[in-house]
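Memo to structure team: turn this sequence into structure tokens by end of day. - J.P.
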Amino acid sequence: MAAKKTKKRTAPKKKVTGKRYSDAEKAEIIAFVNEVNAAKGRGGVTASAKKYGVSPLSISNWIKKGGAASSPKKAKGARKATSGRKSNKSESAWDELVRLRNDISSLEKELEQKRARFDKVKTKI
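Reply from structure team:
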């Protein structure tokens, strides 16, 4: 005779939902990111993740959805991020420097890949 199979009953799974942040909270966190980045040049997302207990990925997504990190949507009661720079001229120069640094970095990576391909083809000759 075959043994009867019994089904184990499992407890129903509970829905896990993450914490929801208001626009004011998001604006405050992004303002802190801007302050740290202005003072140190980078590291604002990590510092705010530690300070506010929010995932760095969430903060990055908020920044991407809201546009540039330097101009978060102003919420009621949120403080303005102070960057330590004096005029729009210097802000645009700063932004241009950041863009140029990123362009140079990507071009250097591309050049490195092309050199590797060149060396590989050269060895076949």
